[in-house]
Amino acid sequence: MAAIAVVACSSSDVPRDAARVEAPPKQQLEQKAAPQPSAWTFAVLSDLHLPNHFTTTVDRTVAALIEAKVRFVVITGDHTNGSPFDGPSRRDKWWGALAKALTPLREAGIAVLPVAGNHDSYLPVQREGYAATFDPGWARPLKIVDAGTTQLTRWPFSYSVDVDGVHLSLVHVVATKLAPDVASWLGHDLESARAARHRIVFGHVPLSSVIWSPAKLFVEELGTILARGGVSMYAAGHEHIIWDEDVALPGGTKLRQVLAGCASGYYDYAPSEPSKIRAQCLPVVRPGEREPVRCKMPNGGVFELARGRKHRHLQHHKNAFVLIDVDGEQLRVRPMTVDTAGKLQSFYLPE
């Protein structure tokens, strides 16, 4: 903040007319002096997979986000446990559980911006349930930009939102291949947002996998669109893991990819061996513990992997999500968890 120069003056220096000027009301002075927020925060949750035995974890997370006054919440897919063999009765039960869990956000005036996951869209009946659950009211008070002409290029499958110079593209990415209409829509949407300070794209499936070998053709297909669109960040879920790393794009550029973990903690996956190498994972010897491994996130802090089910190395916090702070030209990514008391805490460990 710039220093404010204060000039002292005597009463004789004050013009006589000034004595007749009434001071503005105290309330008016306070309103003029109130600072305008220069930064704001939103949350990215993924893979709730409701209903499951960890519904209370989702409830605590929602309550903590309301208390933290996040501006809006993005959910990057797999809201439910849909499969290719579901029927209508299962659909109604699952979407009802999801709506109940998320309603406190809506009641608090916090916008919820969803994208579908593969478990939400295998069958027409699942896509119908997803669309019926997320009416446009979930996005209030934000304004939805919806210029698509097909089901998958309209709310709530693919759409965009502008918030204080930041353009958010929420895209139907449920496999390592884009539907042609979705690819076309995303290209046009990003082109229309060239004036935005940041362009952030959200999908369900990562651009480059962290738990399996990346699909090179998909990296080229989606990566080319993101590179041409000048995207600052791509955020996704699907792999039930927290990850923050720059991904090489066609043409030699790089893009920051953030994976939002599994907000319910329903189940987790282990990073691939190449991912562990990039994270510089090294064994930690502690008596009585099951071979923990300590790692450094490529774009973040310290975390550990411990032996979990099927003897895979899983991240130390099962339930996790991401907070993103927007402050002018800066985007700050903060992986988080919520404890059993409902308090937010950093996903990363002390270094």
Written description of the protein model:
The protein has 351 residues and is an alpha/beta fold. The chain has a single domain (37-268, 317-346), classed as Purple Acid Phosphatase, chain A, domain 2 (4-Layer Sandwich). The protein is 24% helix and 25% strand. It is built from seven helices and 17 strands. The strands form three sheets. Strands 4-5-6-7-8-10-9 form a seven-stranded mixed beta sheet. Helix 2 runs parallel beside helix 3 and helix 5 (180-191) packs parallel to helix 6. The protein is globular and about 60 Å long. It starts with 25 loop residues before the first helix and ends in a 5-residue tail after the last strand. Residues 1-36 have low confidence and may be disordered.
List keywords for this structure.
single chain, 351 residues, alpha/beta, Purple Acid Phosphatase, chain A, domain 2, six-stranded mixed sheet, 25% strand
The CATH first-level class comes to Alpha Beta
Rg for CA atoms: 23 Å
Distance between the termini: 32 Å
Proportion of strand residues: 15-25%
* Number of separate structural domains: 1
Mean of residue pLDDT values: 88
Unreliable spans are 1-36
Q: Which strand order spans the largest sheet, edge to edge or round the barrel?
A: 4-5-6-7-8-10-9
Question: What is the helix content?
Answer: 10-25%
Q: What is the CATH homologous superfamily assignment?
A: Metallo-dependent phosphatases
CATH architecture: 4-Layer Sandwich
Order of helices and strands: HEHEHEHEEEHEHEEEHEEEEEEE
CATH fold group: Purple Acid Phosphatase, chain A, domain 2
- Biggest sheet, open or closed, and with what strands and sense? 7 strands, mixed
Shape: globular
* DSSP summary, beta strand count: 17
Number of helices: 7
Category from helices, strands and their pairing: alpha/beta
